[in-house]
Inverse folding.
């Protein structure tokens, strides 16, 4: 019986650590020191972690404070246009399935880094991707 309790406790701890990483990752995604609000976002993230908020509640609180912009963060990080893997694959001429194995090779050739939103969600800065493609064409 004690072993089951230990396993349950370990699973609960692991879930809490994952949730905390997701919240802190979102805080970093939305933070933009040039536009202000960075300290508010950091403080809110720490409060969310401490009080055990779900990630969805953290996003909602950011929206209420006007810190996420109209399109889920777009205005809060300097107006960068982020694209998902499906759009990136289209842009590069890959299928979405073939993109993921190709990314390490592309990154080794200077491809722009992923912006991690959560452990399983990544986006890319469209302007950086377009600049990388333009540089390839010019070479």
């Amino acid at each position: 019986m004690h072993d089951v309790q230990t396993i349950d406790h370990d699973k609960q701890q692991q879930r809490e650590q994952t949730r905390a990483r997701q919240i802190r990752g979102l805080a970093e995604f939305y933070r933009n020191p040039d536009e202000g609000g960075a300290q508010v976002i950091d403080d809110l993230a720490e409060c969310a972690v401490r009080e055990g908020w779900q990630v969805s509640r953290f996003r909602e609180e950011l929206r209420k404070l006007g810190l996420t912009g109209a399109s889920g963060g777009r205005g809060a990080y300097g107006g960068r246009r982020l694209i998902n893997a499906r759009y990136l694959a289209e842009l590069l001429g890959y299928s979405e399935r073939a993109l993921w194995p190709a990314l390490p090779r592309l990154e080794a050739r200077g491809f722009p880094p992923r912006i991690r939103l959560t452990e399983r969600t990544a986006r890319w800065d469209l302007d950086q991707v377009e600049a990388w493609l333009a540089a390839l064409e010019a070479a």
User: Anything to note?
Assistant: Helices lie at 2-30, 38-51, 55-64, 85-92, 96-108, 126-138. The beta strands are 82-83, 115-118, 121-125. Residues 69-77 have pLDDT under 50 and may be disordered. The radius of gyration is 18 Å.
